[in-house]
């Protein structure tokens, strides 16, 4: 009886399906594990846009990025900038308003002009630092133009950026002295990345001045902007926000067709100027 039972069990074992592990061993060779799944659309698009900059550092990286962000760019008129800023700097919690640089205040989008209480177009890289005015090009490049309270804009003037100074009563958290402006903490990184963009975008080969960074705070009417060491520290201190990333995307998709690489790849600032 025992012998018969063993034979039955042996026969039954022969008819069992192969173990799961064996089935896995026969999977097609090109079946990749989850860790190697294809990148999502955003990552793929980013790689394609910046492909010519991959693996570069220093001046080589700066040159490659200049070519990328200067190709097939749409130049806006200065009047078109009003409409662009109403979209790029829209208050997420109040679509009828824009968020002002230096104060973070929300102000009605249609409340723009040159009077007290209005907002106007702040050139974060001042027009006088390169003498480019408001002509299509650096004077209308939305990547460094932001809505700002008229009086605060006037107080900042064309000063370089650096730490220190006296508090700005109309813009708490900002400080200024005779030749520099310190932005509030929430804007420090945004400002640094806008300045980095301008120094890469405009290299003197398109009829405008070659914009460059230095460690001076009395650059006046020269095409230089400082203070580089401070801007690098601000960039590290205040990483790109969702607001900044959305702004970058809108400028690329709807207005100029180019991007600010230091929002997409913050590490590149150190690779170039560190």
Would you write up a description of this structure?
GO terms for molecular function: endonuclease activity. Residues 109-182 are annotated as: Disordered. This is Endonuclease. It comes from Streptomyces johnsoniae. By secondary structure, the protein is of the alpha+beta class. It has one domain (56-273). 40% of the residues lie in helices and 12% in strands. It has helices at residues 2-14, 20-25, 41-49, 58-69, 78-88, 150-156, 185-201, 228-237, 242-255, 261-264, 267-273; strands at 90-91, 94-99, 106-108, 119-123, 145-149, 160-161, 166-167, 175-176, 180-182, 212-213, 224-225. The chain has a four-stranded mixed β-sheet with strand order 6-9-8-7, with no helix packed on it. The protein has a three-stranded antiparallel β-sheet with strand order 1-2-3. It has a two-stranded antiparallel ribbon with strand order 4-5. Helix 4 (58-69) crosses helix 11 (267-273) and helix 7 (185-201) crosses helix 8 (228-237). It is globular, with a radius of gyration of 27 Å. The termini are far apart.
Strand-helix topology:
Elements: H1 2-14, H2 20-25, H3 41-49, H4 58-69, H5 78-88, E1 90-91, E2 94-99, E3 106-108, E4 119-123, E5 145-149, H6 150-156, E6 160-161, E7 166-167, E8 175-176, E9 180-182, H7 185-201, E10 212-213, E11 224-225, H8 228-237, H9 242-255, H10 261-264, H11 267-273
Parallel strand pairs: 6-9, 10-11
Antiparallel strand pairs: 1-2, 2-3, 4-5, 7-8, 8-9
Helix pairs in contact: 4-11, 7-8
């Amino acid at each position: 009886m025992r012998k018969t039972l063993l034979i039955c069990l042996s026969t039954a074992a022969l008819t069992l399906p192969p173990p799961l592990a064996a089935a896995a061993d026969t999977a097609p060779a090109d079946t990749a594990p989850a860790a190697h799944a294809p990148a999502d659309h955003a990552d793929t698009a980013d790689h394609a846009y910046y492909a010519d900059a991959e693996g570069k550092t220093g001046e080589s990286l700066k040159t490659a990025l200049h070519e990328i962000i200067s190709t097939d760019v749409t130049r806006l008129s200065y009047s078109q900038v009003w409409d662009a800023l109403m979209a790029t700097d829209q208050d997420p919690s109040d679509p009828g308003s824009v968020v002002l640089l230096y104060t973070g205040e929300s102000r009605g989008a249609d409340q723009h002009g040159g009077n007290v209480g209005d907002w106007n177009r702040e050139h974060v890289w001042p027009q006088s630092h390169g003498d480019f005015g408001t002509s299509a090009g650096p004077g209308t490049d939305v990547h460094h133009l932001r809505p700002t309270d008229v009086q605060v804009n006037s107080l900042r003037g064309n000063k370089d950026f650096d730490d220190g100074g006296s508090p700005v009563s109309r813009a708490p958290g900002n400080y200024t002295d005779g030749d520099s402006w310190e932005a509030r903490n929430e804007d420090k990184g945004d400002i640094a990345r806008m300045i980095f963009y301008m120094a890469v975008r405009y290299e003197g080969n398109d009829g405008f001045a070659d914009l460059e960074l230095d460690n001076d705070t009395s650059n006046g009417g020269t095409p230089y902007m400082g203070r580089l060491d401070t801007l690098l520290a601000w960039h590290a201190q205040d990483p790109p926000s969702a607001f900044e990333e959305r702004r970058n995307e809108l400028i690329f998709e709807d207005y100029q067709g180019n991007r600010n690489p230091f929002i997409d790849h913050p590490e590149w600032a150190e690779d170039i100027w560190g």
